[in-house]
Amino acid sequence: MKDPLARVKQGLVLLAGFLLVAVVGYRILGGRDWLDSLYMVVITLSTVGYTEQSHLHAIEKLFTIVVIVTGITLVAYTFGGLIQMVTEGEIQRALGVMRQEREMERVTQHVVLCGYGRMGQMVAEQLQQHQVPLIVVDHEPERVAEAQKCGFLCLLGNAVEEEVLKRAGIQRARTLVTALPGDAENVFITLTARNLNPRLRIIARGEYFTTRNKLIQAGADRVILPAAIGAQQIAHIILRPSTVELLELVTTPGMVDYHLDECQVPESSSLVGKTVQEVDARRAFGLLVVAIKRAEGQMHFNPGPELPFQAGDTIIVMGKQADLEQFRQAFGL
Known about the structure:
By secondary structure, this protein is of the alpha/beta class. The protein contains 14 helices and ten strands.
């Protein structure tokens, strides 16, 4: 069965086109002006009748019969869709879709998450906790409805289609995560997204090691292999259980008050030019500077006291959330 909203749209288009044809027909067949022609169509379809027009000739009478039958059929078809929308709550759904589309048009520098399966749900939950703007794309109505219940902006559609990614604001997004279970779909989405936005950061899921290179060639910046990560995690738990426990404590929200986080250093920050020793984050803020990643990608673990901070650096620190916020405010991070 046709979707009620699509049925109403189609019915209105057909009805408008038919009314135009009917008006033109009465003008040509009866030699009337435009107002009289429109008047004939309205009183005919409304079944009001027009005794003053009883002198219609044969061709015009046949045309009137066609107008009545076709017009009433189209009106019934259109209003039947409206009634179905009311009974099924489609009006509320349509308004909700329009509202979400307006909100999606205003979102910028957001994350586009393709696939709201088990992995997608966990990614979305983490981003929501950190108040990262997010748009979820999935082709399953049930998953979209579930994502909407969780408060996410959602788009029902297949992410492999270029138009769907455009509706998700891929040109304005900062990151795309493709977390579908099929490698072929993830490769195609990655390739399409990279063509639409060359500056986009793309994180792709892969099921097989052989797919990793294909995803990178398609334009992915990072490839996540859940099977490999799971195997490494199991091995680390066996070999270094205390280390794994520490990492879980500082990376899992709510486990302890200490967090492992990162800060970006803009050019306007007062941190630029100062050394690790001059900042003395441990004494001043109770923070441990774990590493400094330069803009070109070089990583300095456990940086020495003489290492200066530079614009574009990413500082990886560990400490309490309140201390992290004070650190950010103090240096404009």
